[in-house]
Automatic annotation (TrEMBL):
Segments forming a coiled coil: none
CDD domains referenced in this protein's UniProt entry, alphabetically: LuxR_C_like, REC_NarL-like
Keyword annotations: DNA-binding, Phosphoprotein, Transcription, Transcription regulation
Species in which this protein is naturally found: Kribbella jejuensis
One of the protein's GO biological processes: phosphorelay signal transduction system
Protein name listed in UniProt: LuxR family two component transcriptional regulator
Gene Ontology MF, one: DNA binding
Gene3D superfamilies: 3.40.50.2300
Taxonomy of the source species: Bacteria, Bacillati, Actinomycetota, Actinomycetes, Propionibacteriales
Keyword Ligase attached: no
Record-annotated HTH luxR-type domain positions: 148-213
Domain of life: Bacteria
Domain Response regulatory, residue spans: 4-123
Length: 221
């Protein structure tokens, strides 16, 4: 079955462009468009898309508020995966959206292939984390907030190691190479981390790691 997508942006040309690009993919179908956050909330409940591409800055209701409402689980069924769209790679709204449960973010000047890949990644249940940009965004936000390093008591030492590397933006393959583990073993550790910490996906794991002090902003620890 095709991955269903709702495109949300206050610029009609942007919506039309994204829709045309995604509809050209054999496994993706755009089922709706919205020009502001309020329309997005309404259409999300009506259409129940698999993925929502959500602009950050919009009139009536911005993307952050819309994401919070959609992911609050006020409608029956599993909530959609939300990918925030932004023109800027550093945006406090995007960080707040990750905290609210968004599965990642995408820069509006991304290529058509990157756009389609982003939809497939989040639809498959993973998080869309551009490592350098996401890491810089979270680090800039948390640098002003003093944190006391902690080790989550629910995690094993190896799971804590994996969490630190997730927060640094590494893929499962890169984590496996770094820790000299099989990739499948890393996948198991990631699944255990999300379950034990009651996190939805890797995006929330990144936020948790920085806010709890498991990873300290700055050079690699």
């Amino acid at each position: 079955m095709a991955i269903t997508v709702l495109v949300v942006d206050d610029q009609e040309m942007v919506r039309a462009g994204f829709t045309a690009l995604l509809d050209a993919q054999p496994d993706i179908q755009v089922v709706g468009q919205a020009g502001d956050g309020a329309q997005a909330v309404a259409l999300a409940g009506e259409l129940k898309p698999d993925v929502i591409l959500m602009d950050v800055r919009m009139p009536v209701l911005d993307g952050l508020a819309a994401t919070q409402r959609i992911l609050a689980g006020t409608t029956p069924g599993a909530p959609p995966r939300v990918v925030m769209l932004t023109t800027f790679d550093l945006d406090d709204y995007v960080y707040a959206a990750l905290r609210a449960g968004a599965s990642g973010f995408l820069l509006k000047h991304s290529t058509p292939d990157e756009l389609a890949a982003a939809v497939r990644v989040v639809a498959a249940g993973d998080a869309l984390l551009a490592p350098s940009v996401t890491r810089r965004l979270v680090e800039d936000f948390t640098r002003a907030q003093p944190v006391v390093p902690v080790t989550p008591t629910r995690l094993t030492p190896r799971e804590t190691d994996v969490l630190r590397l997730i927060a640094r933006g590494l893929s499962n393959r890169e984590i496996a190479d770094d820790l000299v583990l099989a990739e499948q073993t890393v996948k198991t550790h990631v699944s255990n981390i999300l379950t034990k910490l009651d996190l939805r996906d890797r995006a929330q794991a990144v936020v948790y790691a920085y806010e709890s002090g498991v990873v300290i902003p700055g050079p690699r620890h």
